[in-house]
Amino acid sequence: MSILIKNVNVITMNKNKDIIEDGVVVVEDNLIVDVGDRSLISKYLDSEIIDGEDGILIPGMVNAHTHASMVVFRSLGDDVSDRLQKYIFPLEKNLVDKQLVYAGAKYAVAEMLLGGVTTFADMYYFEDEVAKAVQEAGMRAVLGETVVNFPAPDSNEPYGGLEYSKWFVEKWKESELITPAIAPHAPYTNSEESLKKVLEISEKYDVPILMHVAEMKYEFEEYVKKYDMTPTAYLDSIGMLNKRLIGAHFIHVTDEDLKILKMREVGISHNVGANSKGGKGTAPAVEMYKYGLKIGLGTDGAMSGNTLDIMTQMALVGKVHKLVNEDRTLFPASEILEMATMGGARALSMDAEIGSIEIGKKADLVIVETKSINMQPVYDYYSVLVYSANPSNVDTVMVNGKILVKNKSIKSLDMSDVTYQLREIKEKIQNFNV
Ligand SMILES: [Zn+2]
C-alpha cells in the first residue's frame, strides 16, 4: 500500500530547487514514486493519507559528523582548556563501555529523529552497539569504529580498532540502512602505517573512511614543521584522500588544500556549532561551497556542540559566516538548506539515494509544521526553515518509507528504559574525577 502526503509545501531540493505549494508526495515501500500538485490525489485513491496541514515537507536532513553516544557527557566541562587530551580521553578510557555506548546512541538517535535528521555519520568505540540502536530505530547511518594510537575503551592495544573494524564491517556490510565504515580518529593520533592499513580495509570492503582533519591549530603547525606539508597535503601524499573519505572540520586549510579536496572528491562535514564553541576557528565553508566541494553539515558530539539536530546548525552557518565576512548576502538560506540535505548526501556519497524529494529516491522525509507561534508568518520557506524554525517544529519523520516520528513523538523506540539507564550513567560520570 502507498502513503500519500498532501497539503504540504514541498521543498524538493532537486537540481532546479523546485518548490511545489499545496503539493503531494507519494511513497510506495521505501521509495518516492510520485511528486506533484494536488491533482495527484485522485490518482492514488487507495493510499493511506498523511495530511501535512500546510506544513513544509523537506528531504530528511543529514548529520555528516557526530559521536552519538557522547550525548551522555553533554554539558560537562564545557569551558575546560585543551579538553580533548586532558579531559575527554581520560573520561572515555575509564567510563565508556558497551552499555554506555548503546544507551547513549539510542538516546541520540531519538534526539536526531525528533529534530528531522534521518541519516547520520558516526565515529566512536563499540560501534556495534551504535549499529544496534540505529537498527532498532529504523534510521539510516554511516558508522565507523575509531582507530587510535593509544589503548581505547574497547581495546587494550593501540590501533585495536583495525581488527574491530574488519569484524564490524563484515557483520553490517549487507544491512539496508547501515553503512559500516572505518574511522581513524585524526592524522595526529595515527601513524602512517595505521593509516595505510585503514586504507587497505576501506578498499578491500569498499567502505567509507571517517576522520577528523585539520581541526586543531597545533595539528596544522606540527605537520608544516615535520613534513613541510599541511595535514591535508600530507594525507594526500600517502594516498588517503579519495571519494570514500569524509573528513570532519577542515578548518586549517589553504587554497591549495581546497584544490586537492576538489580533485580527490573528498566529503566534508562543516561543524560550525562545535567549532565556534570550541574556539577552533572558522572553516572556509563559503569558499568550499562556491568551489563545488562535497560539503554537508555536522553537529560533532553533543559534548562539543550540545545539540544533535541540523536545524540549529543551519541558523549558525548563516550567522557565523555572515558575521566573520561582514557580508549579509553570503550563504542565502536556500544554499544552507542544500548543505543540510543534498550536501550531506553528497559528502557521504549517498546523493543518488537520498538528499532530495525526487521520484526514485528513498523516502526519507520530514514535515515541519507551520502552526507554532515562532513559525508565522511564512514569506520565504528557506528563511523560515533556516532562521525561524527549531527542532521542536518537526512534526513527522519518515525514513525509508516508515514513519518513525508522528505528532512530534518517537514511534519506533521505547525511551523509558533509556532514560533510566542514562540516570545511572550520569551518577557514574559524576563520581569520576578527571
Ligand atoms: Zn568529532
From TrEMBL:
<keyword id="KW-0378">Hydrolase</keyword>
<dbReference type="InterPro" id="IPR032466">
    <property type="entry name" value="Metal_Hydrolase"/>
</dbReference>
<dbReference type="InterPro" id="IPR050287">
    <property type="entry name" value="MTA/SAH_deaminase"/>
</dbReference>
<protein>
    <submittedName>
        <fullName>Amidohydrolase</fullName>
    </submittedName>
</protein>
<feature type="domain" description="Amidohydrolase-related">
    <location>
        <begin position="56"/>
        <end position="404"/>
    </location>
</feature>
<dbReference type="InterPro" id="IPR006680">
    <property type="entry name" value="Amidohydro-rel"/>
</dbReference>
<dbReference type="Pfam" id="PF01979">
    <property type="entry name" value="Amidohydro_1"/>
</dbReference>
<dbReference type="InterPro" id="IPR011059">
    <property type="entry name" value="Metal-dep_hydrolase_composite"/>
</dbReference>
